[in-house]
Amino acid sequence: MKRFLAMVPAIGIAAGLWLAASGFAAAQDISIRAFKGTWGGSAVANNRDSLYFGVTIRDLDVTITPNAEGFQIGWTTVIRRGGTPNKPKLRKKSVEMRFVNTGRKGVWKLVNSGDMLSGNPYGWARIKGRTLTLYVMAINEGGDYSISRYARTLSGTGMDLEFTAIRDGEPARIVRGKLVRNR
């Protein structure tokens, strides 16, 4: 029994090291300032028709600017779809959003979030661990809803991006990509 009791501290230390190495230990949330900068990269989009019609490639530019009230984020997506390999058809989409503090640590509210039934989307953002996630919910005139989730995770090589779109409970699109900090 004495021998077992003598081993308890060593077992506790080994278990703690295993938990930390396995990612089971609680990760501390990082600051929005860690995401500051201009990021660029590319991504691949999949949806339920990708098996038949292929995936689309996207070029991404993201700018995140923290401020005293919260942060601003803007991104431009260039989508190549159709055309020929030497001259693909391009579609460009830009979005800007501003988030303000909610009083909760690591949680922000989209400025001008409103009554979703009036056509205004409702949005919020949070940081959990090394991931900044934006959520945007909207309801169209017919009552159908959509939820967009933008997860940006800081990694050793830059930022991993995962965008998920859900329309009336059905997955509509998943986009995964890698970004590097430009400045």
Q: What would you note in describing this structure?
A:
The protein is mainly beta and 183 residues long. It has one domain (27-181): Beta Barrel (Lipocalin), CATH 2.40.128. The protein has helices at 2-22, 50-53, and strands at 37-46, 56-67, 70-84, 87-101, 107-110, 122-128, 131-139, 145-155, 158-167, 170-181. The protein has a ten-stranded antiparallel β-barrel with strand order 1-2-3-4-5-6-7-8-9-10. Strand 3 (70-84) and strand 4 form a beta hairpin. It is globular, with a radius of gyration of 21 Å. The chain starts with a helix and ends with a strand. Mean pLDDT is 82; it is low at 7-26.
Topology:
Blueprint: H1 2-22, E1 37-46, H2 50-53, E2 56-67, E3 70-84, E4 87-101, E5 107-110, E6 122-128, E7 131-139, E8 145-155, E9 158-167, E10 170-181
Antiparallel strand pairs: 1-2, 1-10, 2-3, 3-4, 4-5, 5-6, 6-7, 7-8, 8-9, 9-10
